[in-house]
Amino acid sequence: MIVSIIGSQWGDEGKGKVTDFYAEKSDIVVRFQGGNNAGHTIVVGDKVYKFHLMPSGAVHKKSLVLGNGVVIDPKILIEEIERLKKDGFNPDISISDRANIIMPYHKILDGIEEKMKGALAAGTTMKGIGPCYSDKISRFGIRFSDLLDIDVFREKLNLIIPIKQKIFNAFGEDAKLDIDSIFNEYLTYRDYLKKYIKDTSVFLNNAYDKGNVILMEGAQGTHLDIDHGIYPFTTSSNTNAGGICTGTGVSPKKIDKIVGITKAYTSRVGEGPFPAELCNSEGKYIQSKGKEFGTTTGRPRRCGWLDLVLVNYACLINNFSALAITKIDVLSGMKKVKICYAYDYNGEILYNFPSNMNLLAKCKPIYKEFDGWEEIDWKKIKDINSLPENIFKYIRYIEELTKTPICMISFGPKRDETLILKDIFRGV
Ligand code: GDP
Ligand code: IMO
Ligand code: MG
Fold it and tell me: How far apart are the CA of 388 and the centre of ligand 2, in A?
């Protein structure tokens, strides 16, 4: 069986928490796209784990996979493996031999390109993600199978590095790329990682045939998708459910469930129009109570009301089996809470998320207002019917407008701060 976790907004919806929660019932946890631009947080007791590349099943000691669609900075991956070892885990990880490798020049190019783009800059994480995917598409990429073959690796470096150096020079970038030192540095990574490198498409399809439960962990969110997101302020991969198949070599026919992770409000780290953004004390309240500071870059996240135009578009693209609503606790203590259900564009009412960023920037959110709720003792909530009436109304409205059942309500970062409404492994 294959269950997948997909962000329905702009990332940081709590995918790490939900993946860790579902990992208990899974055999294998897989990342299929993105790289260490992701920052997924898991809280177990007093311990906080922040994973950038490692699938969020690591703490449950599950079998872990980095699929071919992931772009991998080997240095960061080794650091994460070592950190886990120090914490008493010995991660059982498989790395796709077809995954592309982030090289030093990708990180430098990320900085150069962001500077050149001016108002079109997405505010990237500067981890070299975009340039690595660009090289993949233009077939200048270096994959793990290349790293395993020293002659091929050297040949590729000899060809690619002088080209990158010319690009640096053209943009007035001083950095000097030294082929020998990059070659030697990456050979040490190869020596460390080679035992983990394999054909993960074969591994995953065999595991599926044997009846294993496979959990696919998306990074970023649908609105950061290179095709369906707020282009050009997106990331560079397919973050939607379609990315699962291209990023793992598993057929769409094998995917059973797709859970959309939806934060009870909206956050955005990076640039671009954000119609429901709250640039006032309410936005500050949510940012500070929700600890909305980037897991990867530490940047403050822009916050706003829940935007169902955004979420509904993600429902359309992904056809979610169910939604998991996270961080509902953060809204406690607010007198009124609002949900945006449409945009007003010069008097025209829009229900679908527009592709044109200038148009989006002129959209005014249309809200439904709800009475807020006080802080509550979540431990007393055992099912949806024991929720205070105002939270119940808020949740039901999301379900009604998205036409998607809610399978989970998360009210804190820890595993036991979770209310299960539907069992995603059985029904829904
Ligand atoms: P991800 O990128 O989607 O995995 O999300 P991040 O880990 O970047 O950001 C989510 C943050 O919210 C993390 O600090 C989580 O520990 C925390 N979190 C997750 N679920 C909840 C919740 O229901 N309530 C609260 N208050 N925090 C949560
Ligand atoms: P998780 O998995 C939130 C944003 C960056 C930037 C844009 C492009 O933790 O939800 P990139 O470095 O990918 O080229 O940056 O995408 N971004 C994220 N925002 N959560 C993420 O990951 C993100 N990964 C990238 O801020 O605007
Ligand atoms: Mg994150």
Answer: 34
